[in-house]
Amino acid sequence: MNRLLTLSAAVAVAASLTSCSSDRDPQVDMCQMVVANLMQSSHLKWTESNRVEHGDKGMEVSLAFARGDNSGAATCYYTSEIDEDELEQGDYAASPYKVILNDSEVDRKILINATLNASKGIITEAAQEASDNIQEMAEQAGDLAHDAAGKARDMANDAAGKARELAHDAAEKAQRALEQ
């Protein structure tokens, strides 16, 4: 039971990170990651993906893939999480409850392990993407701060120059007033 709760939490985090970080379909991404884990390969070439929604009865994602000279197919089945009347793309479960890989149903325990590993991969990928985005924003902020500091320095120099001119003019006027 603890493992199932851990898996559910990991999948929920992975799905939310995936949906926040991109416009990609979280169920397709999860299905691809699960299949890659089941195939024990990150070198699969996805040749086709098809999402078929069945309303409140769930949905399925069908994939075709190639690895070297070999090809394969998989279908991941997802449950719906709310009534059909309110159903949107993100309203399906984040992890598949069943996977058919090359015409064979994947054992439930193997599927749970593959889903957990896929969730870890998605979380790692999303964290790296977030880290890259933060680094880019920090660099942009640094550039903006540098530009702002340069503009502030230029404004301060201009103001100091004008203050010197005004002080010089005032001193000259004072000197002329004293001479009269």
Brief summary of the model shown:
Helices cover 58% and strands 18% of the residues. It has helices at residues 2-21, 26-38, 108-179, and strands at residues 45-53, 59-67, 70-78, 98-101, 104-105.
Tally of helical segments: 3
Quick one: biggest sheet? 5 strands, antiparallel
Tell me the Rg in angstroms.
31 Å
Overall number of strands: 5
Structural class: alpha+beta
The shape is rod-shaped
Stretches with pLDDT under 50, minimum 5 residues? 4-21
Percent range for β-strand residues: 15-25%
Strand arrangement within the widest β-sheet reads 1-2-3-4-5
Spatial gap, N to C terminus: 101 Å
Overall description:
The protein has 180 residues and is an alpha+beta fold. Helix content is 58%, strand content 18%. The protein has a five-stranded antiparallel beta sheet, covered by helices on one side. Strand 2 and strand 3 (70-78) form a beta hairpin. Helix 1 packs across helix 3 and helix 2 packs across helix 3. The longest helix has 72 residues, at 108-179. The chain is rod-shaped.
Features of the shown structure:
180 residues; 5-stranded antiparallel sheet; 18% strand; alpha+beta; single chain
Give the topology:
Elements: H1 2-21, H2 26-38, E1 45-53, E2 59-67, E3 70-78, E4 98-101, E5 104-105, H3 108-179
Antiparallel strand pairs: 1-2, 2-3, 3-4, 4-5
Helix pairs in contact: 1-3, 2-3
